[in-house]
Design a protein that fits this description.
- There is one protein chain.
- The chain is an alpha+beta fold and 197 residues long.
- The chain has one domain.
- Helix content is 12%, strand content 25%.
- The strands form 4 sheets. A 5-stranded mixed beta sheet has the order 1-9-8-11-10. It has a two-stranded antiparallel ribbon with strand order 2-3. It has a two-stranded antiparallel ribbon with strand order 4-5.
- The longest helix is centred in the first third of the chain and has 18 residues.
- The chain is elongated, with a radius of gyration of 18 Å.
Length: 197
């Protein structure tokens, strides 16, 4: 599934996906440094992990034939750290990078082959695309934007009409000003971080 990061990568497109950030809960203050705050932190981390997994507990050792092993933040990893998720839960967005290091047409193709998306695996970007977490966005028509908060979204979305590449194919953060996000320009691509309200 689309799991986000605390920062967003954008090229000429916007992104979308959902994930709860482990450890994002608040801790009670005012007590001794040891027991109370550590217990609150552990509790909030466990709670957010459960929320992110849709209330499930790690169970990838026993996934059904119509499920795949889904990891938080598209981080891949051992089955003991994943959650069985229906392969039909895809959105049809793509192309994508899988945990096997392969590029699939979309997330439906990845899930159908039993693979989760990977934000970290080494995948060769398809022509005229750039990396956006586990997705690849079109360089000329899309931006990759991550919204941060308790639930995080990352994915490829249409770029605003004013975002047109210059003669060198680069974009300027000025074109994304209407989105109200922080923006950094790197090698002609825009990296946006948006706070959810």
């Amino acid at each position: 599934m689309k799991w986000g990061y605390v920062f967003v990568a954008c090229g000429v497109a916007a992104c979308g996906s959902e994930v709860a950030k482990p450890g994002a809960g608040t801790t009670s203050g005012g007590g001794s440094a040891g027991g109370a705050s550590q217990q609150a932190s552990s509790t909030s981390s466990a709670l957010n992990t459960t929320i992110a997994a849709g209330g499930a507990t790690p169970e990838c050792d026993s996934c059904a034939a119509d499920e795949f092993c889904d990891h938080l933040y598209d981080s891949c990893g051992p089955a003991s750290q994943g959650y069985c998720t229906e392969r039909a839960s895809c959105t049809g967005e793509g192309p994508v990078c899988t945990c096997a290091g392969t590029v699939e047409m979309d997330d439906c193709a990845a899930y159908a082959s039993g693979q989760d998306l990977s934000a970290d695996a080494t995948c060769t970007p398809p022509p005229n695309t750039f990396r956006c977490g586990g997705y690849f966005c079109d360089e000329s028509t899309e931006l990759c934007i991550q919204s941060i908060g308790l639930v995080q979204d990352i994915g490829c979305n249409p770029a605003p009409p004013e975002c047109t590449p210059d003669a060198n194919g680069a974009l300027s953060c000025d074109c994304a000003a209407s989105l109200g996000c922080s923006c950094e320009e790197v090698a002609g691509q825009l990296f946006l971080t948006c706070n959810k309200k």
